[in-house]
Amino acid sequence: MLVIVLENAPLRLRGRLAIWLLEIRAGVYVGNYSPKVRDMLWQQVEAGIEEGNAIMAWRASNEAGFDFCTLGTNRRIPREVDGAKLVSFLPLEPDPDEEDNHEGLA
């Protein structure tokens, strides 16, 4: 099983993936292909993602039963911990207007 999720991706990339995979929701593609085709599809994503971001997940023979890779800017960052791939979150960027509103409250 192969899953690719795109956010803020150009229409031409979405159309290219729709040739190979079934788009079950906007930007969510599924299929069942060999590692060679999977790598070719990811190369298409890398070449066409522009300012968007993407994640690809597939079945793998590891403890979790799957593996994944990401591309582009997102708060969710893959981290490997003791051989297991997990996801951590980057902190939210502070809102400068919100900080100014709290200065006089202390």
Tags for this entry?
single chain, 106 residues, alpha+beta, Alpha-Beta Plaits, five-stranded antiparallel beta sheet, 3 helices
Explained architecture:
By secondary structure, this protein is α+β, with helices and mostly antiparallel strands. The protein has a single domain, classed as Alpha-Beta Plaits, CATH 3.30.70.240. The chain has 3 helices and 7 strands. The strands form 2 sheets. A 5-stranded antiparallel β-sheet has the order 2-3-1-4-5, covered by helices on one side. Strands 6-7 form a two-stranded antiparallel ribbon. The model has no long low-confidence stretch (mean pLDDT 85).
Gist?
The protein has helices spanning 11-20, 35-48, 96-102, and strands at residues 2-7, 22-25, 28-31, 53-59, 66-71, 76-81, 84-89. With 106 residues, it is an alpha+beta fold.
Low-confidence stretches: none
- Give the class-level CATH name: Alpha Beta
How would you characterize the largest beta sheet? 5 strands, antiparallel
Please give the alpha-carbon distance between the first and last residues.
54 Å
Shape: flat
CATH fold-level assignment: Alpha-Beta Plaits
Sheet with most strands: strand arrangement: 2-3-1-4-5
The whole-number mean of residue pLDDT values reads 85
**In the CATH hierarchy, what is the architecture at level 2?**
2-Layer Sandwich
Write the layout of secondary structure elements.
Layout: E1 2-7, H1 11-20, E2 22-25, E3 28-31, H2 35-48, E4 53-59, E5 66-71, E6 76-81, E7 84-89, H3 96-102
Antiparallel strand pairs: 1-3, 1-4, 2-3, 4-5, 6-7
Helix pairs in contact: 1-2
